[in-house]
Amino acid sequence: MAMLEPEVSPSSRQRLPVIDIARGVAILAMAFYHLCWDLWYFGFLPADVGFDPRWVFFARSILASFLFLVGVGLVLGHGEGIRWKSFWRRWLFAFGGAVAITVGTLIAFPESFVYFGVLHAIALFMLMALPFLFVPVVVVAVVALAFILPPFFFANILFDEKIFSWLGFWVVPPITNDLVPVFPWFGAVLIGVLATRLGKVALLPKLATIQPKGKVPRAFAFLGRWSLPFYLIHQPILLAVIVPLSMFLGTQNTLREADFLRSCQSTCESAGTSAEMCTTYCQCGLEGLDEDDLWDAVYTGVLSPEQQTKLDENNRQCSALIYPELLDAPAQ
Asked: Could you give the CA distance from residue 161 to residue 144 in angstroms, rounded to a whole number?
C-alpha cells in the first residue's frame, strides 16, 4: 500500500512509530489474506476464502484500515501546509505501482487484469483528499458520509461496465482481480482525515511520546515504512512458490472437483431428485466445466455472457440425461 510517511508537522521529520506499526500490522494482515486466497484458489485450503462472508469482512476491514491510514498520513504530513515535493514523490510511488500492477496483470490475466485496484484508488484519493485537509471538519464529515452511504441504496447496470465501474454502484461486479471504487472507499480516507484533524491537538502529542521497543514492534514499523515495495513484491513471491507446487501436486483440480461434486449433489438432492440421478447429473456437469474451460469463471462467480451461455447449455444437456423429455424442450 502506498501509505504516506506521517510527520508531526511540516517542519519536523519525526515519525510516529505507532503509525508505522499500525501500517505494518495492516500490510501483514493483507499479505496473510492474499496467502490464504492463493492457497484456496490453488486447492490447498477447503475454506471459501473468495466468498465466505467472514473472509470478505476480513478483506474489507484490511482495505478500510489502509485507506484510513492514507487520510491519517495526509493530515500528519501536510495538514499545516502542503509540502508539494514530498507529496508528489509519494504520489508518484503510488501511481507508478498502479501502472506496474496494471501492466503485469494485463500480461498474466488479460481477461481479469487490474485497471482500478488498491494503488490506483490511493493515487486518486490522495489528490481528492487535499482540499479536505483545510475545510471545516463538519464538511469533511458530511462528504465522507456522502461517499460511504449511497452504495447501500443505489445500484445500476450501467456501472457493470468497466468504463464506469471504478465509481462503484454496479449490480454485477466486472471481471477483474481487484477493484476499489470511489464510492464508498474514498469515504474511508476522509474518515482518516477527520479523525486525525479532530485528535491532532490532544492525541498526537501523546502518540509521539510512545517509542515501542523490541524486535516485533521494530519489524512492524519497518514493514510500515516500506509498505509499497512489500505490496508490489509479496504476491509474485507467493505465486512463484504456490503455483508450481499446485501443478506438481495437482491440488487445484482435485479440490475444485470435490467441492463441485459435493455442492452439486447436495443441491440436486435437496430439490427431490434421487441420489443416483444426481450423481449422473453432477458428473456430467463436471465434464462440461472441463471441456468448456469454465472452472475459473464458475469458481470466482464472475462469468461473461458467453461463458454463461455455455454453462446454461451444459446444464440443459446434463438435465436431459436424467430427464430425457427435456431434449425435446426448446432452449430458453
From this structure: 25
Residue 261 neighbours by CB distance under 10 Å = 16
Q: How many helices (H) and strands (E) does the chain have?
A: 14, 0
Give which of 13, 58, 15 is closest to 35, Cα–Cα. 58
Can you tell me the distance from the alpha carbon of 285 to that of 174, in angstroms, rounded to the nearest whole number?
A: 25
pTM of the predicted protein model: 0.74
| Dist. CA 256–CA 254, nearest whole Å | 6
Q: Which residues contact 73 (CB under 8 A, 6 or more apart)?
A: 3, 4, 5, 6, 19
Mapping DSSP to helix (H, G, I), strand (E, B) and coil, where does residue 179 land? Answer: strand
Could you read off the pLDDT of 106-152 as tens digits, one per residue? 887 787 889 999 999 999 999 999 999 999 999 999 999 999 999 99
Three-class DSSP category at 197: helix
C-alpha 103/C-alpha 232 separation (Å) is 12
Full DSSP string of 83-134: -HHHHHHHHHHHHHHHHHHHHHHHHH-TTS--SB-HHHHHHHHHHHHGGGGT
Longest dimension (CA), the chain: 80
pLDDT digits (tens, 9 = 90+) for 273-309: 888 888 888 888 888 887 887 777 776 666 778 888 8
Closest CA to 124 of 101, 106, 142, 98: 98
- Kindly list the distances between the CA atom of residue 101 and the CA atoms of 95, 185, 321, in Å, as whole numbers in the listed order: 10, 20, 45
Q: How many residues does the chain have?
A: 332
Distance separating alpha carbons of residues 293 and 213, to the nearest angstrom:
53
Place of cell 482518516: 192
CA 66 to chain centre: 12
Q: Write down the domain spans for the chain.
A: 17-245, 250-328
